[in-house]
Amino acid sequence: MIKVAVLGARGRMGQNVCAAVEAAPDLELVAAVDAGDDFSTVARSGAQVAVDFTVPSVTEDNVHKLIDAGIHAVVGTTGWTDESRARVAEHLERDGRGLGVLIAPNFGLSAVLAMTFAKKAARYFESVEVIELHHPDKVDAPSGTARHTAHAIAQARAEAGVAASPDATTEGHEARGMDVEGVKVHAVRLRGLVAHEEVLLGNVGEQLTIRQDSFDRVSFMPGVLLGVREVVSRPGLSVGLENLMDLG
User: Fold this and answer.
1) Is 138 one of the annotated active-site residues of the chain?
2) 219: helix, coil or strand?
3) Residue-wise burial string across 124-143, b where 16 or more C-beta atoms lie within 10 A, e elsewhere
4) Which residues of the chain does CATH 3.40.50.720 include?
């Protein structure tokens, strides 16, 4: 049995995580805390792994506290930067106890597979853009998933020596989306949506569209539980659930 704590337990994702952990035969929910609760409850609970679905303003501090407490962490909260991830990686190395932290922009298996397929395809197409679509209560744009996808695409294209996507725009640059390492990313916020992403890849005379749709937050739970089970045996910082999956 792996003892699990959930941070952000009263949020929509946190509630689903608590239910999924309680339903899993090999996991035990030992703490469920939210904003305003005493963080020391987590350390006293005997938790081996903590799942963080809080808010960007507190998630890094939470992870550092978990490392200090000797607890592995699985993090679904967005808002991370290269600098904040580097601080966590350095803390883990300095701690020296073999703790693992997984920061995943998306726990949906379909989303992870879509990102992986997009990275593999990106080097074969002249043009590529990303569109992410979410509910209007989401606080960040573009989403962490879209940024992660764009980074993977840009990395694959750079390694293959592929030129930047052609774009003759001279007016209305604000309509062209955010530039993420040379990849244009567009964010849609619309009532009725949950979490969706499209990667559009084009050559002369052909187009490939990779799309994934998450219609319910319960779809993220298999990925969260995979992270909980795997992070205990993966010391250091892992970024992206794909690093825990056998995707070749």
Assistant:
1) yes
2) helix
3) ebeebbbbbbbeeeeeeebb
4) 2-103+218-244
CA dihedral 37, 43, 45, 47 (to 10 degrees): 120
Which residues are annotated binding-site positions for (S)-2,3,4,5-tetrahydrodipicolinate?
A: 135, 144-145
Query: Choosing from 65, 72, 119, 134, which is the catalytic residue?
Result: 134
Residue ranges of the chain assigned to CATH 3.30.360.10: 109-215
Annotated binding site: 8-13, 34, 76-78, 104-107, 135, 144-145
Active site residue 184: no
Which pTM value belongs to this model?
Answer: 0.82
Question: Does domain 109-215 match CATH 3.30.360.10?
Answer: yes
Q: Is the pLDDT of residue 248 over 70?
A: no
Measured in whole angstroms, the distance separating CA 5 from the mean position of its chain's CA atoms is: 19
Give the pLDDT of residue 64: 97
The per-residue pLDDT of the chain, averaged, comes to 95
- pLDDT tens column, 113-128: 999 999 999 999 999 9
Going by their DSSP bridges, the two strands 72-75 and 100-103 should be labelled as parallel
Give SS3 for 227: helix
2-103+218-244: CATH, from 3.10.50.30, 3.30.930.10, 3.40.50.12780, 3.40.50.720: 3.40.50.720
